[in-house]
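Lecture 7 notes: from sequence to structure.
We start with the chain below.
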Amino acid sequence: MPASTPQETIPSNSAQAARTAGIEFSQVTKRYGANTVVNNLTLSIPAGETTVFVGSSGCGKTTTLRMINRMVEPQEGTITIGGSKISQTKTPYKLRRSIGYVMQSGGLLPHRTVLENVMTVLPVERHPKPQAKERALDLLGTVGLDASLAQRYPAQLSGGQAQRVGVARALAADASILPHGRATFSAVDPIVRTELQEELLRLQGELHKTIVFVTHDIDEALFLGDNIAVFAPGGKLAQYGAPEEILTNPANDFVESFVSQSVGALLPADVMRQVRYIRRERYRRTREAAASGEGAASTSGRG
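Predicted structure tokens for the same chain:
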């Protein structure tokens, strides 16, 4: 995991970072007129882990996320994926097709069914329609949705169901990078939100994608993230590190003030680690029990 350090001392060009980072920002700046929304960002996001961008409104989290697939272009600096500069190796269109993207509130097309929404990216990638349909149905099962929902339209879904369809669509192209847009889970009630968070942890345990997640909620960041990037006003990276490090060793007064809003800030670091471990173990045992039950049912059915 990355060290918990303020922006000024984060290493930018180490050979180790270049080898292990799935996504790397090097001295990236984005301005809109005189307003700097991302300020000299240097950050290495490890492959196969969940990195959460957290901070108050207007601090550059979503802009940084959108620069990964070139929906926003920086004025300065470089961004690499797998060691290749995205500005030089791929057109924006091709790059976006290679990256899954979970939009805010699902971002589903209202005139298409659930199945058609999930299949959206598959014909573009030259999947024959029967194979695309089969894969879309499989993905609905992967995100915990019943196949009976396939012919419904987005307006006929609950908020939680719509979010799951959005995740299934992002997974359809089998991309290794999966950005989650701002407030992805905030539009649903607390119970559904917890279920979606658990589902994300379950999927990550199975698929090991490079997930970049944006939230205003520090508690959500602490439970979901392997790494947390705290953004401060003015688009500056205030601190980057493991959740326990952010809690126990805030880099400055801003980070300390921000994490003080967290329930986790009330817990000792060892207790926080235990909570995260217990939560992940619970999902693992649930998956193993479900797999065992399916195997038993299959055996008993052979008669």
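Points to note: The first helix runs from residue 15 to 20. Confidence is low (pLDDT under 50) at residues 3-21, 298-303.
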